[in-house]
Design brief:
It contains one helix and 18 strands. By secondary structure, it is an all-beta fold. It has a single domain, classed as Jelly Rolls (Sandwich). Strands 3, 4, 6, 7, 9, 14, 15, 16 and 18 form a nine-stranded antiparallel beta sheet that branches. Strands 5-8-17-10-11-12-13 form a seven-stranded antiparallel beta sheet, with no helix packed on it.
């Protein structure tokens, strides 16, 4: 089971541990002056953790002073499509999930038109290769079937040679932008809302990254619809994925992630 050195009081999941002395947050997301929200400590009590395969993640640590998430990842010598959100039909790797809300605590529903915006920086991929850290809006959050989970969001990644980047995920398809010496990146996905079953469309999104001197960007269309009732609350999920059906090299992957959800109607 993964462990971390963040000793948080009142932890809500017993599969992971942490030892950065702080009390558990009352809510998962913490609003900032800019309107972006921190995920906070994934072990802090507001998230439910699952890791069916138990192969990718060695440990997780949250550093509150810099709002940085550290994932200590394992080497995977035998590729398996179920370890990845970017290939195949199932996903069995680590996932932290929580109900998705607007900044005022109002639930985000399938029937809502909204945008999901993500900012990533403080990224360091260390020795890790062929991994992705995915922040996505999902429908059936406990599911391991990608077609039921329906992830739509943004991910940080490290390539086979260690180049960092970000990408857009639409169900099990992705589009990435990479740049050496990445400083920061931003991405956004959009959802149409709806009034009847199978009318709430996931439009896909775009991502842009930069170093001090170089930029890159990419887009990914989605076009699928949420399949639940319009009154169903969506969820936020942070997932550790291999970068396709590939072998990986273990190592440390650091990233700071902020997000917001903006209602469009």
């Amino acid at each position: 089971m993964p462990s971390s050195n963040n000793a948080s009081a009142g932890m809500g999941n017993t599969l992971t541990k942490s030892n950065n002395v702080s009390s558990a947050p009352e809510v998962v997301a913490i609003a900032s002056a800019t309107g972006m929200r921190s995920l906070g400590d994934l072990n802090g009590g507001g998230y439910t953790f699952s890791d069916t395969a138990g192969v990718a993640l060695n440990s997780y640590v949250y550093t509150s002073a810099t709002d940085t998430h550290t994932f200590n990842l394992n080497t995977i010598a035998v590729a398996n499509e179920t370890y990845s959100l970017l290939s195949g039909a199932n996903f069995t790797s680590p996932k932290w999930r929580a109900p998705l809300t607007y900044a005022d605590g109002t639930p985000v529903l399938i029937g809502d038109a909204f945008s999901f915006n993500v900012r990533m920086d403080n990224m360091s991929v260390g020795a890790a290769r062929q991994y992705a850290i995915v922040l996505a809006v999902v429908e059936s959050a406990s599911s391991t079937v990608i077609g039921t989970l329906h992830p739509s969001g943004i991910y940080a990644l490290t390539t086979t040679v260690g180049t960092p980047g970000m990408g857009v995920i639409a169900d099990n398809l992705g589009a990435a932008a990479t740049v050496a010496s990445l400083v920061s990146g931003s991405g956004s996905t959009v959802f149409s809302g709806g009034t009847a079953l199978n009318t709430a469309v996931k439009a896909g999104g775009a991502v842009a990254v930069r170093s001090a001197t170089t930029v890159s960007s990419n887009i990914r269309a989605d076009g699928a619809t949420w399949t639940g009732a319009m009154s169903t609350q969506l969820a936020l999920a942070l997932m550790v994925s291999t970068n396709g059906t590939v072998t990986t090299t273990g190592g440390q992957f650091d990233v700071r992630i902020k997000y917001n959800v903006t209602k469009l109607s």
